[in-house]
Design brief:
Blueprint lengths: L1 H11 L7 E5 L7 H13 L8 E5 L4 H28 L1
Parallel strand pairs: 1-2
Helix pairs in contact: 1-2
C-alpha cells in the first residue's frame, strides 16, 4: 500500500493537476493512511480544469461485492412476490 501512497503524493497531488482523480472501491478495506492519501488526492484535484479524469479502483473484493448486492436482490424478490400476491388477490 505504500506504493499507492507514494504515487499519489508524488504524481497526483500537484498545484496545477493534469487530471481530476476519482475513486472507486471500498476505501474501508484499505489501511487508514492509504485511504487518507487517496481522499486527499481526490480533494486536491477536484477543481482540475483540463477535463481529464483518472479513476483509481482500489479496495475491491469479489466476496464483498456479492454481499453488497444481496439486499438489492432481496428487494427485487420481495417486489416480485408482492406483485404475484396482488395478482392472485385480484
Amino acid at each position: 500500500m505504500e506504493v499507492i501512497e507514494e504515487v499519489v503524493a508524488e504524481r497526483l497531488i500537484k498545484p496545477e493537476p493534469a487530471w481530476q482523480v476519482q475513486l472507486a472501491g471500498l476505501l474501508d478495506l484499505l489501511p487508514d493512511s492509504t485511504a487518507r492519501a487517496l481522499k486527499d488526492a481526490a480533494d486536491a484535484t477536484r477543481h482540475c480544469r483540463t477535463g481529464a479524469h483518472v479513476t483509481l479502483a482500489v479496495g475491491y473484493g469479489g466476496r464483498q461485492e456479492i454481499v453488497e448486492a444481496l439486499p438489492a436482490f432481496r428487494e427485487i424478490d420481495f417486489l416480485r412476490a408482492l406483485r404475484n400476491f396482488a395478482r392472485r388477490a385480484a
